[in-house]
Amino acid sequence: MSKIAIIGAGLVGRGWSIVFARAGHEVALYDSQAGALEQAPAGIRRTLEELKRNAIVDEPAEKIAARVRPTGDLADALDGAVYVQENVPETVEAKRAIFTALDEAAAPATILASSTSGIAASHFTEDLAHRERCLVSHPLNPPSLIRLVEIVPAPWTDPKVVERTRELLEGTGQTPIVLEREIAGFIVNRLQGALLNEAFALIEDGYVSSDDLDKAVKDGLGARWSFMGPMETIDLNAPGGVRDYMGRYGPLYHEIAQQASARGYSEALLDQVERERQAALPADERDERMAWRDSQLMRMAADKRR
CA-to-CA distance for 34 and 48, rounded, in angstroms? Predict the structure, then answer.
C-alpha cells in the first residue's frame, strides 16, 4: 500500500493514522513537538485495542499500530508519501506556514490535504508553486469512528487530485463527499451551526431547557438521522415523497425561517446553558461521559459495519 504522511500527532492526527494504517497503508506521523510524538503510539494502540474488541478492525491491534512510524523529521515523513494529511492549529497563519513548507518539500505529485474545520484552502494555498494539488479533507472527530470526510477543492485544485483523494479515502473505508466549490464552514458545520443557532435561541427565549432540547434531538431527530439524512427522512415521511411533504410542511418551515435571526450568544445565555449542563453533568464526570460517548460511537460503527 502507499505511504501516507500525517502532519500533527494530536487527537485528529492520531485518528487519521488509524484510518490509513487499518487500511494497510504505511503511515509516517510527524510532529515538531517531541512530547506529542512520545504520547502518540500509546494512544493509537489503546484506540485500536478498543476497535478490535468491538469488531471494527479485523487485524490485531499491534499489527496495525506497527504501520504507524512517528518521526520528528518533516523531510523523512514526506519522503515517498503519495498523500499528506495536515492537522495543525486552526488559524490561517498556521495553515499557510505548514503548507508552504509542505509544498517546498513534498514531491510535486503528492496530494496536500488539510483537516481544517472551516477555513477554505484558497485562504492559505494561493501563492504556492504547486497549489493545484492542495485541497481540504475535513474529517469528523474522531475519524477512526465517524467515517464522513468533506473534500473541498480550492478554485485552482486539479479535478484529478479531487478524484484521487476521493478514491484513496473510499479505499480506507471512509465516506467522502465532494463539494462543488468552497463555502465557509463547508457542509457539516453549516448544518450543525444552523441547528445550534436555533437551539440557543429557543433556550434564550425561554421555550425549553437545554436538557429537554438535547432530548428533542437525541430521542427525536437523531433517531432517524443516525442512519438516514434529512432529504431521505422527508421523502419517507409523506405518502407522495418530497414534494408532498413540502406541500404539507413547507409553509410552516418558511414561517419559522422568517422568524429566525442572527443574534449571537450573550454571556447571560452561555451562563444559563453552562449552569444547566453542569447540573446534568458535573465537571468531574466529563471524562467518564466522553469515554461512554466513544463506546457508543464504537457500537454504532460496529453495527454499520455489519
Answer: 22
Instruction: State how far the alpha carbon of 290 is from the alpha carbons of 10, 138, 248, in Å.
Output: 17, 22, 40
As a whole number of angstroms, the distance between CA 208 and CA 23 comes to: 45
Q: Which CATH number fits domain 3-178: 3.30.70.260, 3.90.226.10, 1.10.230.10, 3.40.50.720?
A: 3.40.50.720
* CB 296, CB 54: distance < 8 Å: no
CA distance linking residue 268 with residue 205, whole number of Å: 12
User: Which residue in this structure is represented by grid cell 447540573?
Assistant: 279
Residues 6+ apart with CB under 8 A from 250: none
Q: Grid coordinates representing 67? A: 504501520
Residues (pLDDT < 70) of the chain are none
Residues of the chain with CATH 3.40.50.720: 3-178
65, 44 Cβ separation under 8 angstroms: yes
Q: How far apart are CA 71 and CA 77, in angstroms?
A: 7
pLDDT 10s digits, 121-143: 999 999 999 999 999 999 998 99
Which one, of 147, 144, 155, lies nearest residue 176 by Cα? 147
Angle at which helix 267-280 crosses helix 188-204, to 10 degrees, equals 90
Q: Which three cell numbers stand for residue 288?
A: 467518564
What does CATH list as the number for 188-305?
Answer: 1.10.1040.10
pLDDT digits (tens, 9 = 90+) for 202-214: 999 999 999 999 9
